[in-house]
Structures are given as C-alpha cells and as structure tokens.
Design the sequence.
C-alpha cells in the first residue's frame, strides 16, 4: 500500500512549487462536486474503467451533454493526469489551499479544474464529450505513479484508444491540459495513437529531467516535488460516496511493490540524465519527425515553474506536419485564458481560438465555420507587452552574434550567488557575483530573440563545481535585468556547452549587454557550493538578435508577471564592475532594417517546419550498456526541408565518424555506435542549393 510521508510533505509544500493545472477559484465560474449541473455547463456525469494489457485499470470521469441519448456519438476531448481524485486533486498538501484530500465528508464528483473551458468554450453546447482520465497510481486507477514514464505514456495511448472506440464516440479525440496535464498531451502528440486529432498543451515539461535538474545542478524543487506527487498518489477514495471499485483501485499499487520509495529515489536521487529512467522521459527525442497530430502550445518566457528551457522551442520546431500553432509570451505558469485576480492574462480570444482549433480538427467543422487558416502559427509577446505574429520562433532572421568572453575571470563556488533581485533568503552582497563581460552602450535599439549558446573552458581544482551563464540587459542606471540563464556542473575536463533559456526582449539604445559566468544562481537552483575557485580559461557566447525591425504590435492583456519581473528582478551592477568588464570588442548587432516582406503569418495549412534557413543540433547518449559501455550517441535537430545534412562526431577535437542524411520533413536524426569513453560533440552542416548552414552541439560524456 502507499506510504504517506506527511510531515515532510507538508513542510516542503510550503516552499515548493507544484506543477499543477490548478487555477485560483473564480467566483464567476461553477465549483463544487456538482459543478457540472450548472446551466452554463449542462452536463451529465458517469464513470468508466479502462483495462490495459499489463493489467493496469484506469478510471475516467465522463461528462456528456445533458439529455443526450447514451448511444449518441460525439467527438471526445480528454484531459489525462494525476489531479482528479474525488477526495481532492492535490493530496493532503491541498490543505494549504483549504482543500485537503480526505476520505470522508465529501461528495464524489468529477474535477472542476477546467470549468473555464466548459463555460467559455461551451463544450457541451458544441456537442463534445469530455473525460478526466486518472493516470496509473492516482485517483481511481490502479498501478504505480510513473512521472510521465513508459507506463504513463501507455496510459495516454490506451485512453485515446478507449475514447476513439467507445460506442458513444465518433472516433475523433482531442487532448487538453496544462503543466503535468500538458505533458500527457505532448505524449499523445509524439505517440500519435489512432483517433487522436489535436492536442492543446499549456506550459508543459518537455524533458522530465529538466524539471528537477539542470545538467546535474538541482532545482529548488528536486527533493520535494517527488514527495508531493506520491502524496497525491496516496489519496484514497471517499468512503461514503465512491464505489467499492474506485476505493480498491485507489489503494492498489501492487503492480510495483515499494512504488513510492523506489520511484522517489529514481527521481530525487538520480541527477544523471543519461540513465534509462530519464532517457525514457525525454519527449524532445521522440518529437523529431512526428507532427501528424496538430499541436496548440503555450509557453511563458518568464515561467518560474516548468521553465522556458531551450527544449521548449526544440520540441515545437522538431515537429513536421501541418496546423501547429503556439503562443509564446511574457507570462509564467498560467493557462491561456486565465482570468483570476492578481496574475491576469485574460487574452482576448484564447478560448475562441482553442475551440476553432478543436472544432476543425476534432469535430470536423469546415474552415468556413472554424477558420483556423486565419490564425497565425505563432503569436509572440515581447518585453513591452505587445504581441506580434511570426512564421517561426526563434525567427528565421535571427543573427547569432559571437562574442569572446574576457578570459581569466574567476568566481568562487560558494553556492550563495543571486542572479536576480527577486525574493530569496540569500545574504546581502551576493547579487551578480562572477566573471563579467559587458558590451559598450548599444548605439541603436536592438531586439534579442531566441536562444543563446555558450561554449566554455573552465579550470577548477576538482570536478563538480556549479556554474551558471547569465545574460543581462543593463540600463544606464546600472540596473541589470536577467534575459536568460542556464546551469551545469563543471566536469573534470572543464568543457561546458550550454543552450540558455529562450527570450524575446527589446533593448533600447544606450543599454548594454552583460554576460556573467558564476556559481549557479541560488535563488533558482540549489548549488552545493564546493568552496573552490573556478577560472574562465576561455569562452564564447552566440547571442541571438533580429536583423529586421518588427512593427506589428497587437495590444492584448498584459500579464502581471511581466510587471513584477520588471520591478523585482533587476540587480545593480557596481560602476567599477562595468568599467573593468566592458569589452571594446564585444560584437554588437547592426541597426535593424525593415522586413523585406510583411510579417504576416502563412495560412495554417502551411507545414510548420517547412522550408526555413535555420539549422539546429542536439546530442544525447543512450545508456544501453553492453560490457559496461554506452553504445549509442544520437544527434538530431531541424534543418531546411530537403537539405543534405552532414553530421561529424568528434572526440577530443578529432572526427571519429561521419553520417549524411536528407532532412525530408524539416528535421534529421542520426545515430552513432561508440566504443570508447570520452566527451563527444558534433558539428553539423546542411546544404540546399546555394544555402549553406552550420551548427554544433554541446559535449556529452560517455563513460
């Protein structure tokens, strides 16, 4: 049976973020166990069970339009995840929000997590069936919580299959979700089970390792989040109102004896991304060449929960196919149409656009009545709060400008460095410590848009020091606002390749660009602090700036997160630091020119990932051990459709293998077998006609 680490869970829950789909209660929306009977919803509730091949039984709460005959066929929208237990979706730690999961004193009923979609999207009135499916080990489902692993990926496939084959289904299915529930949507997008026609995923995690770690450095939540989820999984059924089957399923984790302890150690005790546990939970690797199922994605540049890591854009850009769209903006962990007080987003038309997306792809409504072809593939919000449309992001006219970092800089790996001014328990005087390289003042306005790549050679007495590379917008008042960052542990050979977080930000003339190399930001990560000096021997950064000026500025609601970031995040850089670190040779962007063509998005039926002048590259080692050796290295990424791609695998500066492939769907993937230990990286070239592009990967260690 399931363990309940109650005291520690409650303590940690006070401090840690839970990646939930929850939204603060809105008095204008129905709530409570019988919320579905509200006339604005108009639904009837039933329960069903799904038996999988391995014996796992999933529970589903099914909502159908009120008064509809049982055998009337409708399209189906699923939401799949761990938060739907009748006793309470967030375990005993739900007490912090006034709703602890208790087995008595409650009335069983479906979760009210998506009442905004039911009311504003008019799901029942449009003739959809909606089902909440409990992933294994949660709610009324049997099994062991799997943290988006192979078991839960099977749950998604089987849930879609069940919904498509149900006697009351037309066979067309969509998935809707945010955060963990967005992760299961991405699983559907890469697994492409029969019947799945569209996915809406808001603020998901693309590689589950990156929710707890950054290249070996722990996030603040790395120890607490697994405990919180096993508290959720331990939620029993309601003794007085749930069926005996529901209650027995809620207690049944016999599929994997010792489930909570073993699962906790696999997550909180495993910072090695190359292990089979984490490789199986990397959805970016699975996305390459997929894309048959249209995806509607939202991703906040200022996400403080699921993080705006480089893999967010890699996942979306790796998809082939047609009809994908995305909203990227200056918000954090909120849903697309959120209308709560405080962190308001309330983006005009979000629910309308979502329902056009579902109506066309899932319900089969023609374009005349669901004109998704008029919606842009990508909406982007920049630093002034305005929105624009783009064909791709990072945009095709991004120019990566390489700057050589000032060599010889040092930092102390104390674990007490603060990268932003946001609240933390760090002592005064720990802001922005490290080795700085700062540009002269910009002679004209510039627009940073994309992902910075950093390539560093460091020296330390022993391996394991923490590192973060931070990029700043430094104003004339010396206030430095963080644009992007990423962290890593420093390996024995001191070589580090990093892709930083994505951001879209305007820098006015007179501002400076600052790059800081230092101990990992302790308000964001939990660096151990090895108490040693780390020296920057040499390094470069490739900073992404737009060549062409964007003039489109659509005024939609401004997220509160943007205003709090502008107010609370800056740190002050001492004038003596600016004077000493200013590098006259810092590569500055040229003055932007007008767009050669209007910045108008193509119709939605133009393939996303179609012809583009961008080349990306990513490398990973697969821990399939034979005789103690890791046997496979995979290099993948995006390239112009039809381009001839050459991948050169390097070890110790020497090319050890070469592969050539054609990017047939705007993406490529090659696999190498390796026998020797060492650090491997790849250089990639792509040619199509007169176009020639190059890219390189970070290094991965093969032991």
Sequence:
């Amino acid at each position: 049976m399931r363990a309940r680490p109650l005291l520690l869970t409650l303590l940690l829950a006070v401090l840690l973020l839970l990646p939930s789909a929850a939204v603060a209660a809105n008095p204008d929306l129905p709530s409570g166990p019988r919320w579905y009977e509200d006339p604005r919803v108009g639904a009837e509730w039933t329960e069903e069970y799904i038996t999988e091949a391995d014996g796992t039984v999933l529970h589903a709460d099914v909502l159908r339009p009120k008064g509809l005959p049982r055998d009337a066929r409708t399209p189906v929208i699923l939401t799949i995840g761990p938060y739907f237990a009748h006793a309470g979706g967030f375990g005993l730690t739900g007490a912090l929000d006034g709703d602890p999961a208790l087995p008595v004193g409650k009335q069983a009923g479906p979760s009210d997590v998506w009442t905004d979609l039911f009311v504003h999207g008019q799901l029942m009135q449009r003739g959809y069936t909606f089902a909440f499916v409990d992933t294994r080990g949660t709610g009324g489902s049997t099994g062991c919580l799997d943290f988006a692993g192979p078991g839960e990926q099977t749950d998604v496939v089987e849930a879609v299959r069940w919904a498509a084959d149900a006697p009351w289904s037309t066979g067309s299915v969509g998935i809707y979700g945010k955060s963990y529930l967005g992760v299961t949507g991405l699983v559907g997008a890469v697994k492409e089970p029969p019947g799945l026609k569209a996915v809406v995923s808001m603020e998901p995690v693309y590689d589950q390792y990156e929710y707890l770690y950054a290249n070996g450095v722990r996030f603040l939540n790395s120890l607490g989040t697994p405990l919180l989820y096993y508290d959720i999984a331990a939620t029993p059924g309601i003794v007085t109102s749930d069926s005996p089957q529901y209650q027995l399923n809620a207690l049944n984790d016999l599929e994997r004896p010792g489930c909570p302890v073993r699962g906790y150690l696999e997550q909180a005790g495993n910072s090695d991304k190359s292990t089979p546990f984490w490789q199986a939970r990397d959805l970016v690797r699975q996305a390459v060449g997929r894309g048959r199922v249209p995806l509607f994605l939202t991703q906040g540049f200022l996400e403080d929960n699921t993080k705006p890591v480089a893999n967010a854009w890699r996942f979306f850009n790796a998809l082939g196919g047609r009809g994908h769209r995305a909203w990227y903006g200056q918000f954090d962990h909120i849903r697309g149409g959120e209308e709560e007080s405080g962190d308001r987003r309330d983006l005009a038309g979000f629910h309308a656009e979502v329902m056009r997306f579902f109506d066309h792809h899932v319900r089969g409504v023609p374009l005349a009545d669901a004109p998704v072809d008029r919606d842009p593939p990508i909406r982007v919000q920049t630093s002034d709060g305005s929105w624009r449309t783009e064909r791709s992001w990072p945009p095709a006219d991004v120019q990566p400008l390489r700057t050589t970092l000032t060599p010889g800089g040092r930092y102390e790996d104390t674990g007490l460095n603060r990268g932003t001014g946001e609240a933390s328990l760090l002592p005064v005087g720990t802001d922005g410590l490290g080795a700085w390289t700062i540009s002269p003042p910009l002679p004209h306005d510039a627009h940073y848009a994309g992902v910075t790549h950093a390539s560093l050679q460091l020296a330390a007495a022993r391996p394991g020091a923490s590192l973060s590379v931070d990029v700043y917008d430094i104003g004339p008042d010396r206030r430095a606002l963080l644009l992007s960052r990423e962290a890593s542990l420093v390996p024995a050979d001191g070589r580090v390749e990093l892709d930083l977080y994505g951001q879209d930000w305007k820098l006015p003339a007179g501002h400076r660009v600052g790059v800081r190399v230092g101990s990992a930001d302790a308000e964001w990560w939990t660096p151990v602090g090895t108490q040693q000096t780390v020296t920057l021997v040499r390094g470069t950064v490739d900073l992404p700036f737009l060549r062409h000026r964007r003039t489109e500025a659509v005024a939609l609601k401004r997220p509160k997160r943007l205003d709090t970031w502008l107010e609370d995040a800056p740190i002050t850089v001492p004038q003596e630091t600016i004077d000493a670190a200013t590098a006259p040779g810092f590569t500055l962007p040229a003055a932007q020119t007008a767009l050669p063509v209007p910045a108008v998005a193509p119709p939605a039926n133009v393939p996303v990932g179609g012809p583009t002048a961008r080349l990306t590259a990513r490398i990973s080692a697969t821990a399939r051990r034979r005789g103690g050796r890791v046997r496979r290295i995979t290099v993948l990424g995006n390239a112009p459709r039809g381009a001839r791609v050459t991948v050169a695998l390097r070890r110790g500066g020497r090319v050890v293998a070469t592969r050539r492939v054609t990017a047939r769907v705007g993406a490529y993937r090659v696999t190498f077998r390796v026998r020797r230990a060492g650090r491997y990286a790849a250089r990639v070239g792509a040619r199509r006609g007169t176009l020639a592009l190059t890219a390189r990967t970070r290094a991965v260690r093969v032991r």
